[in-house]
Amino acid sequence: MKKIAVLTSGGDAPGMNAAIRAVVRKGIYQGLEIYGVSNGFQGLMDGKIEKMELGSVGDIIQRGGTILFSARSEEFKTDQGQELAIKQLKKLGIEGLIVLGGDGSFTGALKLTEKGFPCVGIPCTIDNDIPGTDFTVGFDTALNTIVEAADKIRDTATSHERTYVIEVMGRDAGDLALWSGLANGAESVIIPERDEPFENVIERLKRGRARGKKHSIIILAEGVGSGIELGKRIEETAGQETRVTVLGHIQRGGQPTGSDRVLASRLGAKAIDLLLNGEEGMMVGIEANQLTQHKIADILSKPHNLDMSLYKLMGELSI
Ligand code: ADP
Ligand code: F6P
């Protein structure tokens, strides 16, 4: 393999740039030509492919977002779209593709591999919802964004003796909610993976106030429902003045943390190694601090498992 392309797809994640840098630098180190595709699979079909040099990825390791831009493309889901994408790659003599994204993007990478074009995936999403890796690139940064925001909310919550519901992202996964709940000392965390009776939430709130707590913070994963609705219900039922903050896309931006930059660098370099070893249709990951690899087909057929020991710990510490 002499020429490899890289693209970013789906929701962006802080650390994607560090992963692009690692792919480009490790590829060139190995004597390859590396090409960057703009705007994900849509850009691939449109032939937006340019050769990258060492300097193309200078000064980006610390930047959020993705210098290659991201996109969501319905057209690429069709056989014709995928064939067109492969045609564009072959036109430039490119023989392998590295896809940075989440499970949707990996489905696209798998489709191309099944059509004879070797792809490798790097898990990049703030949701941390990909099996076969303990962490995805972007999760740690988003977690720290939530932690900082919730600390600020706690200040004003205390001043006004209010209850706060903070709705966080995560799509169908509760990782961001659970980890931030633990990190922020929240009263309750409500996640899709666990059916928490509403009465328990209310009970904990009342108990907290009875022992003199000046504020209460509840972290709600977006996959469960609306924070606004929950806030109204809490105010009516618990009789506590309640405010709601929906953190939204602020969670997707910002400088990647050191951990995300290191993870992205390790996974990016490993993706190059896999393609050079002739491995295709694989995803690179990190498990127990070791770099690992799994077939994308296996990853897509498995559910994401949240570490429920953290949920138990949360319950023990928020009594
Ligand atoms: P993420 O990768 O973050 O999960 P999406 O689910 O939006 O994001 O997927 C990103 C892109 O991957 C889609 O816009 C589409 O181009 C491609 N993709 C998703 N599902 C498929 C599919 N079933 N077949 C081919 N491509 C797909
Ligand atoms: O997958 C990342 C994510 O930020 C999810 O947490 C969220 O549900 C979704 O993307 C939001 O997507 P959009 O950028 O299309 O609003």
Automatic annotation (TrEMBL):
Pathway field: Carbohydrate degradation; glycolysis; D-glyceraldehyde 3-phosphate and glycerone phosphate from D-glucose: step 3/4
Binding site residues for ATP: G11, R72, S73, G102, D103, G104, S105
Active-site positions on this chain: D127
Binding site for ADP: R21, A22, V23, V24, R25, R154, G185, A186, E187, R211, K213, K214, H215
Top EC class of this enzyme: transferase
Pfam families the record matches: PFK
Localisation per UniProt entry: Cytoplasm
Keywords: Allosteric enzyme, ATP-binding, Cytoplasm, Glycolysis, Kinase, Magnesium, Metal-binding, Nucleotide-binding, Transferase
Binding sites annotated in the UniProt record for Mg(2+): D103
EC number: 2.7.1.11
Catalytic activity: beta-D-fructose 6-phosphate + ATP = beta-D-fructose 1,6-bisphosphate + ADP + H(+)
Function: Catalyzes the phosphorylation of D-fructose 6-phosphate to fructose 1,6-bisphosphate by ATP, the first committing step of glycolysis.
Oligomer status and interactors: Homotetramer.
Residues that coordinate or bind substrate: T125, I126, D127, R162, M169, G170, R171, E222, R243, H249, I250, Q251, R252
Domain Phosphofructokinase: 3-275
Entry's family note: Belongs to the phosphofructokinase type A (PFKA) family. ATP-dependent PFK group I subfamily. Prokaryotic clade 'B1' sub-subfamily.
Protein name as it appears in the record: ATP-dependent 6-phosphofructokinase
InterPro entries named among the record's database cross-references: ATP_PFK, ATP_PFK_prok-type, PFKA_ATP_prok, Phosphofructokinase_CS, Phosphofructokinase_dom, PKF_sf
Regulation acting on activity, per entry: Allosterically activated by ADP and other diphosphonucleosides, and allosterically inhibited by phosphoenolpyruvate.
Keyword Protease: no
Cofactor(s), by name: Mg(2+)
